[in-house]
C-alpha cells in the first residue's frame, strides 16, 4: 500500500478484555508484587485510566451485564433487559443473559462502517448479538466459565446458530489458545479495510490453574494480604452464599487467601505474556503503528478483601477496573484520573477512530481526559447489584445502600471517604460531621435510579 493511503486509512483496533481482573492487579496500577511487563509497557506508551467503574448487574454472573454495558454503551438496566416487568432475584431469567436486541454493539457499528470484525474467545451475551457483531471469528466460547483446557469451542458459524453439539473441547490452555488465534489472524490479514480484533480471555477467572512455570513465580508466603483483609464480612450484604463465596473456607484464613492471590497473579502474568505475543505479531507485520490497542476487564473480584471472595458486591475491588489505551491518536505516558464508566468506552473508541456513534449510546467520550482538555467526563458513577445493593461515588465520597429482602440482607448504608480510606474500611455513615455528604449522595443516587428506571423503585411502588 502506498504511503499516503496508509495515512488516510482508519486505524485497526485490537480490543483485549479479561475476566475478573480488578484495577490493582497490574504493576502499572501500583501493585509491587505482580509481574505484568507488557501491560506496564502499554500503559507507559499510552494512557492509563485510573478511575473506571462498572455498573454491576441483576445477576450473580456479573460478566453478562458488565460486558453488555461495555458493548452497547448503555446503562445496566437498559443493556440486557427488554421488558419493564422484572421479578427481581430471578437471576436465571433469560432476558438478563442477552444483549437488548434493539441496541447496536460497538463491533456491529464498526462492521457497518467497513471494518473487518473478528471475534475470539468468551462471549457471554447470547449468540444473536455475536452473529451481528462479527463478520468472522474463531475459537469462540459461549458461556461464563469452565476448565481452561477443555472449553467447548466453536468455529465461526455464518448462520449465527452455533448449535451446542458443534462445540469441540479445546486442547490448549484458553489464554494461549485465544492469543495464538489472534496472532494467526494478524499474520494472515491481507485485506485493505481496517480490522477490529476482539479477544476475550477467560483468565484470570477460576478455576485458576495456570501452568506450573507461572505458579513458580509467586510464593504464597511472600504474597502480602490486602489492607482490608477480613476473616468475615461484618454483616449480611444480601449475597453471602453465592457460588464464589464458597471457594474458600469461612472464616477466611490468611494462608488460604495468599494461595488464591498467588494463583490469581500467576494467571494474570501468563495472560500478560500472551498479550505480548499479540503485540509482537503487530510489530512483525508492520501494523503496530496503525493499530489502537485497548486493554480492560469486565469487573474485579474480592479474593479476601472485606472477607469476601467473589465480585457480587459494590466495593471498589469488584467494580473498579483497569483501562489502558495505546496507539494512533493516544499521547504517551498519560494518566487519566477522572471518573469514567464502562459504558464510556464505546463513545471514546468511536471518537478516536472517527466512527459514527449511534443515538442509543448513553456513555460519554473520555477523549477530553486523554487530551488534557478536561480532568473528568462525569461527576459521579453509579452501580447496582441485584435487588440488594446500590452505589454512588463522586471519586472521593462513596455511598453503598443495602436492602433487606425476604429475610436476606441488611438494611443499612455505608459511607467512605476514598481519599483517606481507599480500602473502604472506615464506615462514616453514623458520623454526625459527615451527614451532609451522606444526604447529598443519597439524593444523587435516588435521582439516578429514577433516571434509569431502576426496577427496585418500580417494585417498591407496587408494594406501596
Automatic annotation (TrEMBL):
Pfam families: Sulfatase (PF00884). SUPFAM superfamilies: Alkaline phosphatase-like. CDD domains: sulfatase_like. Keywords: Calcium, Hydrolase, Metal-binding, Signal, Transferase. Belongs to the sulfatase family. PANTHER family: ARYLSULFATASE FAMILY MEMBER, ARYLSULFATASE G. This is Sulfatase-like hydrolase/transferase.
Amino acid at each position: 500500500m502506498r504511503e499516503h493511503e496508509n495515512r488516510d486509512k482508519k486505524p485497526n483496533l485490537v480490543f483485549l478484555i479479561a475476566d475478573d481482573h480488578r484495577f490493582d492487579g497490574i504493576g502499572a496500577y501500583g501493585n509491587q508484587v505482580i509481574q505484568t511487563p507488557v501491560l506496564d509497557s502499554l500503559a507507559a506508551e499510552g494512557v492509563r485510566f485510573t478511575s473506571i467503574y462498572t455498573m454491576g448487574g441483576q445477576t450473580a454472573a456479573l460478566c453478562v451485564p458488565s460486558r453488555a454495558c461495555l458493548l452497547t454503551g448503555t446503562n445496566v438496566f437498559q443493556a440486557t433487559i427488554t421488558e419493564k416487568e422484572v421479578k427481581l432475584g430471578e437471576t436465571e431469567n433469560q432476558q438478563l443473559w442477552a444483549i437488548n436486541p434493539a441496541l447496536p454493539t460497538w463491533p456491529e457499528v464498526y462492521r457497518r462502517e467497513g471494518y473487518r470484525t473478528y471475534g475470539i474467545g468468551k462471549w457471554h451475551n447470547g449468540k444473536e448479538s455475536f452473529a451481528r457483531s462479527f463478520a468472522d471469528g474463531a475459537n469462540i466460547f459461549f458461556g461464563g466459565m469452565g476448565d481452561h483446557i477443555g472449553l467447548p469451542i466453536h468455529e465461526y458459524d455464518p448462520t449465527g446458530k452455533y448449535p451446542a453439539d458443534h462445540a469441540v473441547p479445546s486442547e490448549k490452555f484458553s489464554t494461549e489458545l485465544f492469543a495464538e488465534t489472534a496472532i494467526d489472524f494478524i499474520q494472515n490479514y491481507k485485506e485493505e479495510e481496517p480490522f477490529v480484533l476482539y479477544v476475550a480471555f477467560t483468565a484470570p477467572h477460576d478455576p485458576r490453574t495456570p501452568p506450573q512455570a507461572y505458579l513458580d513465580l509467586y510464593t504464597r508466603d511472600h504474597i502480602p494480604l490486602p489492607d482490608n483483609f477480613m476473616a468475615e464480612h461484618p454483616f449480611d450484604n444480601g449475597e453471602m452464599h453465592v457460588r464464589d463465596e464458597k471457594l474458600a473456607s469461612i472464616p477466611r484464613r490468611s494462608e488460604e487467601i495468599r494461595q488464591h492471590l498467588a494463583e490469581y497473579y500467576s494467571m494474570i502474568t501468563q495472560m500478560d505474556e500472551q498479550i505480548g505475543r499479540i503485540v509482537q505479531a503487530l510489530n512483525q507485520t508492520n501494523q503496530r503503528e496503525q493499530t489502537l490497542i485497548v486493554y480492560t476487564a469486565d469487573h474485579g473480584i474480592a479474593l479476601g478483601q472485606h472477607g469476601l471472595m467473589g465480585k457480587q458486591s459494590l466495593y471498589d475491588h469488584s467494580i473498579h477496573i483497569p483501562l489502558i489505551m495505546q496507539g494512533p491518536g493516544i499521547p504517551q505516558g498519560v494518566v487519566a484520573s477522572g471518573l469514567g464508566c464502562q459504558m464510556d468506552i464505546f463513545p471514546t473508541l468511536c471518537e478516536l477512530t472517527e466512527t459514527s456513534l449511534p443515538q442509543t449510546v448513553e456513555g460519554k467520550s473520555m477523549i477530553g481526559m486523554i487530551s488534557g482538555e478536561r480532568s473528568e467526563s462525569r461527576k459521579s458513577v453509579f452501580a447496582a447489584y441485584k435487588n440488594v445493593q446500590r452505589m454512588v461515588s463522586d471519586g472521593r465520597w462513596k455511598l453503598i445502600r443495602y436492602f433487606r429482602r425476604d429475610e436476606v440482607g441488611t438494611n443499612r448504608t455505608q459511607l467512605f471517604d476514598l481519599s483517606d480510606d481507599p480500602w473502604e474500611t472506615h464506615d462514616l455513615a453514623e458520623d454526625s460531621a459527615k451527614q451532609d455528604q451522606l444526604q447529598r449522595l443519597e439524593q444523587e443516587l435516588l435521582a439516578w435510579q429514577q433516571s434509569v428506571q431502576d426496577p427496585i423503585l418500580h417494585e417498591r411502588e407496587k408494594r406501596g
